Structures
1.
Amino acid sequence: MYAVTMGDRGRLVVPAELRQRAGFEEGRPLVLLYSPGGVVLLTRDQLKDMVRADLADVDVVGALLAERREAADVEDAV
């Protein structure tokens, strides 16, 4: 756990040890993610990995196709 203080214009200083452990390098784009549990600071790669893990068991394409077929069936019935 690291305690930081918000500075002017919303600036935060991320302690060097945490930057090193998290892979935060100077100039690297970061993402602030708001969630009900708080705010999370991630690299874009970390965010992509998190989203992929969350969607690993979800068939997004299959769900979209099923939705489109259902809409087409309703449209054909009219």
2.
Amino acid sequence: MHNIIEQFLNYIKNERELSRNTQESYIRDLKQFNNYLSNYSSVDLVNVNKTIIITYLVYLQRDGKSASTISRKLASLRSFYQYLLNNGIIDIDPTHNLQAPKQERKVPDILTPKEVNIILAQPIPNSFKGSRDKAILELLYATGIKVSELVLLDIDNINFELSNVTLDKKANNTRMVPMGRTASTYLKKYINEYRMETLKDTEERALFINYQGKRLTRQGFWKIIRYYTRKTNINKKITPNTLRDSFAVHILQNGADLKSVQKILGHSDISTTQKYFFAINDEKLKEVYDKAHPRA
């Protein structure tokens, strides 16, 4: 059974050329389903039917998994069984016509421009850590890129002459995002004054590094955002994606069209981008209520 999973991994890696994160997600979901079968069923991955998969989805729901998590796991299984079907390993796709649970529309917690400025002002760029962290936060808010994209940036991804960042440079879905004058200024300062002196290996191409001169990880960034947000008095849930979400809402509020925002954020489906319109509308409703209601 592990051999089939390995074959599927080679397929999504070499033929479909999915990102590393997507590959890991698919394989993790597949192994979890395989473990479920080992514990609760007498069949293996190849011989499951639609009833078993439906039972698995119910099991996940009762286990407290969110609708989005269950939908993702079903998508992983659907991709796997489509692969088996196309390669003649099975005759019927057990995921055919299965519907994922309906997801609730979630509006992200958005920072105001004033709150963003408070967070961006926290790092003092007069040391390696301060300069690096200032450049990171400014770049995140200036571009709206994901944290997973940020930690994978290399020096070669930055073009100061054009003032933009190139993402997914080795993939088919390469996109360039403008980074603005302020982010560019602090990024130059970090690179020219602190990055080189911290490197242990001059061949290292990672843009953002840690004290050991190695590429900064997502866990490392989470510590950074948590450190600076704790120093503020902002009473909102601030996650690594909050600056990205706030960036999207703020440029929409200032007149950017939805298609342009979709392209900048790298969303394949515009419905993903539309949640930021909901955030704007919810905020406007709150503002109207506060002004109009006598006891607001």
3.
Amino acid sequence: MPDQPMPSSLLDRLSALLGPRGLLTDPADLAPHLSDWRNLYRGSTPCVIRPGSVAELAEAVRLCAAAGAPLVPQGGNTSMVGGATPDESGRQVVVSLARLNRVRDIDPLDMTMTAEAGVVLKAAQDAAAEAGCLFPLSLGAEGTATVGGVLSTNAGGNTTVRYGNARELMLGLEVVLPDGQVWNGLRRLRKDNTGYALRHLFVGAEGTLGFITAAVLRLFPRPRETEVALCAVRDEDAALALFRRVRDRDEGAVRAFEYMSGAGVGFYARHIEGGTVPLPGYDHYVLVDLASSRPEAGLRPLLEAVLEEALEAGEVLDATIGESEAQRHALWRIREEHPEAQKREGASVKNDVSVPVSKVPELIRRASEACRRLIPGTRPVPFGHLGDGNIHMNLEQPEGMDPAAFLARSHDIMDTVNAVVRDLGGSFSAEHGIGRLKTDMMPDWRGGAELDLMRRIKAAVDPQGLMNPGKVLP
């Protein structure tokens, strides 16, 4: 990778290609693109490219490849691991796909949507709804995150237990490769057994192999009936027992099953405007979300029967069921505002980890205890997707501790949590990806043949190493 700054001739060519809307160079315009959502990293760039078409992006990539200019793709810039932030060298060009924001096609019979990379996730959900369908991928940043970003990171979110991660919702891709070639793999086929499934190389690669510019996404029937309940449960084991009860009654009805600690719910009540909690003062909570496209599915009596059994067994201590869409939204808001509430409470170290579902209670207990031993006064705030084994094992700074001093121990904390995760057969990154934050963990967790194969794929597809350098691979 060249050490010299971007040549002015390249900037001139990009300006001629993209025009004033497509090339940003003013420091004020660059600033929003230079730091990540968590403010862990702040980089520098000579310019931000904002192509208005796939053809413009392909030609810009060709120009940058010829000049040896590294490229950093950026969607909604909601990465939790610094995956879309340029480094401090001032040589990496940020490529924003925000202007590639068209829904090209929706087919309610095929149950597919073809959307460009810059389509905001919420806009994709709304477009599907207008067509009488459901695009089920749902996460806290859905008002900002984009289709290209969630596919590049293989985002999970709240409904993975029912619909799978982003990878499972993708049928085909369009990709601009590192040399500027455009691969059109926008196939709407459920079955296509014709060699290597190239589309899966780019999902989860975090832009290190090419730019996803559009995707064919799977749609589903819209739910005709939904039920949401907030439950105070005895402990982590009771939360898992309740999940099993609901799943055993009707696995296909479980759309989401979320765990929350009493600490996290307390932060929500303290810091989020209008943050009322209908069942205050408990140590453990779960949010149960059921949905069915079947008419007269009987979800309400199913939920009430399960809760009655769990109350009699002492697993559920109290529960409330949303009686309207507004109430269901209010219950979900308790869960969705967890990241913002933690941010307002102080410094926190985030661990996006997964273990087998049966090991979730042990993960929460053991990791919490280990982190309290590491830094006395640390406040564990575990929450997340109990139904698929993905818990955000977050740690809040001790009260009164200097935030910077706590964050300086971030890697010690992550190592402490990961030691428990490894012992339980889990993964150190469940849905946030590797980005820049976790590259140092890759040799220990994915070393040997696995990491070697990743590097060989990277070298074959991106021989100059220009695509999102410094991310994923150490």
4.
Amino acid sequence: MGIFKIFSRDKKEKLDEGLEKTKSSVFSKLSKAVAGKSKVDDEVLDNLEEVLISSDVGVNTTLKIIERIEARVAKDKYLGTDELNRILKEEITGLLDESNSGDATEFTTPADKKPYVIMVVGVNGVGKTTTIGKLAYQFKKAGKSVVLGAADTFRAAAVEQLKIWAQRVDVPIVEQGMNADPASVAFDTLQSAVKRGADVVLIDTAGRLHNKVNLMNELTKIKRVMDKIIPDAPHEVLLVLDGSTGQNAIEQARQFTKATEVTALALTKIDGTAKGGVVIGISDEFKIPVKYIGVGEGMEHLQVFNRHEFVDSLFSND
């Protein structure tokens, strides 16, 4: 299975840098796992299982990967530990293939859906509003016109933060301040986007997981109101997760997928952590495509997730 070299060198370097902490952690554990061994035997597989679980890949996903490698060991009879890297790369890419379709590299939206409406969900503190700002920047850079909707009206800081991003990226924002009805903000945002002939709409929503029933009702109401203006809106429900929280991010994904239908994931703060393996676990466990990955602070550090490039950056021991 070849790795598709489709990222620009600059993007690839940023991805490599962003995954450096995870990569060095995984490699130091891997080298210990195979120390003194020339072939992949039961002990190496046990050690490998420990490496993957401690790298936040998650238990269920780790067991799947180990099973796949066991099947190859049984088939090839003799697999050298020097080949383990390549095999890990192939099997993890294969696993990610099952929940991520296509090999996107650019910020695009379907031509037949204009405006393309993205409702962004996630708990406070995961980088949700920042991700919206960076998405607006990337879509605008790709030649798309963008409108922001400040429907996270539960916190004054969220509305103010989004306004700052709108100014920074120079895109219009629709807001009614704190404590406004989120559905009303969403309604106005879509009306404004249609009037402007916008390409993309990004709607920020509140992330109050401790009161799941309210959250569920609120998101359902926002969706219902949007559908009145643009049938089938939102076209995408993007859940933002903080990759540096590891297993906690998996738990948040579990809670949000119960509260609303999530169709895509964005994982932030991957660069500041050795827990990058969580991308593999979340993608596999929820069968929801990882669409965006944050590998640094800058606006250009939000990348379209490409599974082949991700695995290549993670397991290339150059």
